[in-house]
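Re-running the complex after MR caught last week's input typo. The corrected sequence lines follow. Everything else is unchanged.
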Amino acid sequence: MDLTVEWGQVHALLGENGAGKSTLMNVVYGLIRADSGEMRFDGAQVQVHSPQDAIGLGIGMVHQHFMLIPPLTVADNVILGQETARAAGVIDGRASRRTVRELSHRYGLQVDPDARVQDLSVGVQQRVEILKALYRGARLLILDEPTSVLTPQETEGLFQIVRGLTAEGSAVIFITHKLGEVMSVADRITVMRRGKVVASTTPAESSPADLARLMVGRPVLLRVDKGPAQPGLPLLQVDELSVLDDRRQLAVDGLSLEVRAGEILGLAGVEGNGQVELVEAIAGLRPTRSGRVTLCDREVTAASPRRRLRAGLGHIPADRHRMGVILELPISDNLVLGDFDRPPFARGIVRLLAQVRDHAAQLIKSFDVRAEGPQQVAGALSGGNQQKVVVARELSNGPRVLMAAQPTRGVDVGSIEFIHRQIVEQRDAGLAVLLVSSELDEVLSLADRVAVIYRGQIAAVLEGDEIDRDRIGLLMAGAKTDEVAATGEGG
Amino acid sequence: MVSMRAFRAWMVGVMAVALVATACGGSSGSSTAANGCSKTYKIGLVTDVGKLTDKSFNAASWQGVQQAASDKSLCVTAKYIESNQPTDYRKNMETFVDQSYDMIVAVGFLMADDTLAEAKAHPNVKFTIVDNAYDAAPSNLVGLVFKEDQAGYLIGALAGLLTKTNTVGQVLGLKIPPVQRYADGYLAGVKSTNPNAKVLTVYQGPGDGAAFNNPAWGEARANDEINQGADIVFGGGGNTGNGALIGALQKGKMCIGVDVDQYLSYPDAAKCLVTSAEKHLSVAVKTIITDAVQKKWPAATLTFDAKNNGVGIAPYHDYDSKVPTDVKTKISDIEKKLADGSLQTGVTI
Amino acid sequence: MPLVAILLGFVVAGVAVAITGADPIQAYLGLFQGAFTNKHAFTESLIASVPYVFLGLAVATGFRAGLFNIGADGQFYLGALGGVFVGFSIHGLPGVVHIPLAILAGIACGAVYGGLPGFLKARFGAHEVITTIMLNYIAYSLSDYLINRGPLGDPHSSAPKTPFIDPSAQLPIIFADSRLHLGLVLALLAVPLIWFLIERTTIGFRIRAVGLNPEAARSSGISVARTMVLVMAISGGLAGLAGADEVLGVSHFMPPSFSIGYGFDAIAVALLARSNPWGILPAAFLFGAMRNGAGFMQLQTQVSADMISIVQATVIMFVAAPVIVRWLLRLREVPAESLQITQPEGVGAAPKT
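Corrected-run output:
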C-alpha cells in the first residue's frame, strides 16, 4: 500500500479497529519493522528501525495511552530523555522551562511548565504529549485516536492546535475511526480496510456515508432507526448512592437515577467522573457506602453479583478483556459464564459439554459471531465479535434490565451497527436499558433520555428537545444547569 | 572469547555425547580391589540425613572405614551413600546388599529401626550401627556405643573451671540418648568443679530444620545463650553444633567442639575452640571392621569408654597457654579416675 | 520441548559433576542403573514417584486457579500426622476400614491446613505465598512438638518418633518382593480424577475461570473468594494424601525430618507438567527416578548426591525459560507480537514543494 503525506496538511487515516492504521504508524515510528517496501522522507529514502531514528528525522507520535510520569512536572516530562545538561550532568531546569513555555505559547497549547502531570486533566495531558513531540523537533506528528478521551469542547481545542501546527508548515497524521472528526479537521483522507488503502480523498469530495461505506466495505446505516420510547414502570432505581473508588475517594456521591421499562437512559460524561464505580456498584462488584439499588422492586444493594443476575440484570462490562470474556476459554464456555452450573448445562457437578456447545452454536448463529466454531478460544476473535459474545451471553440470560457500559468501544462499525440494533430491539421488547458511554455520538443516537454525570453526581437529566450536543458538552465539563440553559438560549 | 555460535555448537555437541553414552549403557566402573588380596571385603556406609559434610559424626565414622580400607592387611574396599531423607535409609542399605556388599555401617541412632529390619532380612550380611545398642538383635548386627557422658563430664569440668560469668551453655542436636549423655555428663562435670555455675541447655527439635544439619539454628541458639550470660558454649550436634561454635566465635566467647578434635576437622572455629569432647568413632568403626574381617565378630554391643580410649578430651591447641596449669592438672586427674573406674559420672541413660 | 529442557539440564549438571572431579558419564550410568535396571530399582523409582504425583497435582490444581501453594510441604506434614495418628491409635479394625479411615484423616488434615491460607486470602487479602510459607514453619514445629514431646510421641522409644502404625493400616504391597504399595494405584487413580474435576465439572470450571480472569469470573457471578478457599482445600487435601500415603505405605511411622523439601520439589513437578494432570505422571516419575537413582549414582562414583538437586534445578530453569532452549537449538524465534495484517509495501512522506 502507498501513503503520501504533504507538509502543512492534516492527513486523516480512517479505518475500523484492526484495519492496520496503528500498525502502519508503528512502522513509520520505528516500533515495528516492515517486511518489505520503502519509506521516503523529504524525498530521500530512509530506514527507521527504532523510535530514536524516527525522532531524529523529525517524526513524533502521541499514543492512545499517554507515556507520562505523573509525579513529575510538565517541564520534566517534556525534556525527559533529552535533557539540556550543564556541566557534570546537572539538568538546566531554567532553560528547559523557558523552552517549554515558548513552545507552548507558540502553538497555543496553554500549558504551565511547573504543573505536575498528575494534577492535569486528560485533555491537558494530551497537550503535554504533543509538547514532548515538538520539543524533540517533530515536524510530522502522528496522533493515534486522540479524541477518544476528550470532551466535545476539548476535542474542538485539539483541532485548533492541529490547525495551528499545519499553519506553521508541519504535517499531522490523524488516526481515527470517527467520521465527524475527519470531516471537520482533515485536509486529506486516506481510508484503510484490512491493511490496504481503499480510498484517498478530501472532505470536500466525500460525505460521511461514503466514508463509512469505504471503511466497512458495504453501505452502512449511520443513524439508528428507532421509534419513540414507550416507557413503563421503573425497573432499575438508584437512590442516594455513594461509592468509593480504589483509592478510597468518594467517586459516586449521593447519586440517584431511575431507568424505566422500554426506555434507554444514556449516561454521558467525561471518563473518570464515577461511571466505572457506579456501574460496578449496580452490578454488585463494588461495595456501596450508602444508598440503595433496587432491581425490579427488589432491593439488591448488598446482594452478590449472582443474585442480581438471577434477579434480571444483564451487564455488558466496559472493559471487555478485563471483565467481559475470558480470552483463553472457548466461545462456548464464555457464553455460559453465568449459567454453567445450572441445567441444562450441568447435572450435579458434571458439566454437559454437548449442551454447552449446542447452545453456543445457536447463539453464534443468531448473534452473527464470526468464528470458526464454538470451540474457538475467545481471544482469537476480533474485538467486535468478542463483544457480540458478551452481548449474546447477557441477553440469553433473559434479563429485564440491561446495563451496557461502553458497549461499542474497540468494536468495528459493522458490529457497532449490530449491537446498537440489539439494544434498541431489547428496549422495544420492554427492557430497561442503562447505556453508559463516553462516546457522545453513541449516547445521542441511542438514548431516549440523557443523564450527565459530573464528579459522581447527576448534573442534569435531559429529555426530548433538551438533548443537545453543546448543552451536554458544557454539563460534562461541570457547568451548572441554569448557566447551560442560558447559553443554550443565547446561542 | 568464545563466540556465542561456537558455544552453542559446543553445547549441542556435549548433549549429543551425553545422549549416546546414556543410551549405550555399559558395565560398572567400580574397580578398587586392593592388591594381593584373594578376596576383598566390601563395606558400604550409609549416612543419616546429616551427610558426610557434617565434619563430625558421619565424617568420623567414614574416616574409620577409610582407615580400615587403607590398612592393606585387611583387604577392604569401601563406598558410601548419603541419605537425603529418613525413608531412604532402608533403600540405601538395600542398594549395598544388592551389590553383594559384605558389611554395612549405619551411622546414627536415627537409623536404628531400619538397620534392625535390614539385618533381620539379610542374615548373611554383617551390619553395624554407630551409636545404638539393641535390647535384642540378631547375631549379624552389632551396635557401637560410647560413654559420651565421660567426655561430656571432662569438658564440663573444664568449663566450670574456666567460666568467668558463672554461666555456660550447650547447643545440642536431637534429644537422643548419645546426645543426652553428652549433655548430662557436661552438666555433672560443670557442677563437680563449680557447683554455683548455671548451665543453659537447648536441644534441636525435629521441626527445627534438618536434624544435625541446621547450622543457622545452632548459631541463633548460641547467640541466645551468650545473651543470657554464657561465656563458654558447647556445640554438640553435627552441623547444628558447628553453627553454635560459629555463634560463639563471632561473639568472642569460648567454645567446645564435639565427637572429634574439631580444631583439626573444623578450622573455621579454631579461634574459639578450647578443646573438644572426643568420641573416637573412627576407632570404634575400624575396630568392628577389623573384627569382622578377622572373623572375631563380637556377640553383643561394643561399648567404648575412657578405659579403652573410646572417649576423651582433645588437645587445647591455641588455648594451651591460656588454660592455667592447675586446671590442666585437675582435668587429667579426672580423666585418669574415669579410666580406672574410681569416678562415675552418675549418668545412667 | 520439556524433553529438550530435561536433556539440557543433564548436560549442564554433567559439567558440574565433571568440575567436582567425577566422571559424568559414569555418574549418569549409575543414576540410570539405580533408577531402572538394578534389582528393586524400578519399583523403588515408582515408590519415590508416588508422593510427587499427589503433590504435583496439589500444586498444579492451585496453579489452575492462579494460586501459588508453597505450603504443600506443610500440608504434607499435616497429612502424615493425621494418617499416622489414625494408623497407630485405633486398633482392631479390618484393613478395608482402617486404611481408608487413615487416608481420609490425612486428606482432611491437609485440606483444612490448605484451606486456611485460602480463607485468609479470600477474607483478608493475605497473599497465599506468604501465609503458606509461614504455615510450613508452623507445621514443622507442630509435628516437632507432637512427635518429640507431645501426644504423638512413641512412649516406648527414646528416639523422637511416633509409634508404628497397626498392620491393618499399612497399605498392602502390590508387587511381591518389593516395597511397592497400594499408593501407586491411588496415584494412578488420582490423575484422571483430578483431570475430570478440572476439565469436566462445574467446580473445575470455576477454578479455571478464576485462574484465567478473576475479574471476569466475578462479574459473571462466580464467587472468587469461595473458589479460592475450595481450591486451596483441594490442593491441601492432595498434599495431605501424599503425607498419609508415605506414612501408611513406606515408613509406617513418622520420624523427624520426614520430608526435606518434597513440597518444594512438587512446584517443579507442576511447572514441568505445565499444570496438566496427565503431565504430572511423567514429571513425577522423572523426579522419583532421579531421587531413587541418586543413591546408586553415589555408590558408583562417590559424587555428591546434591548433584541430583542440581540436575533438577537446571531442568526447571530450562523448562521455565524455553527461550534459552530455542536459542541453543537455533529454532527460529517467533516474534512476541505477531502482525495480523498485510504489511505496507511502501510508505513515503513527500515534501511540500
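None of the earlier attempt is carried over here. The longest strand of chain A covers residues 234-244. Residues 327 and 378 of chain A are 5 Å apart (CA to CA).
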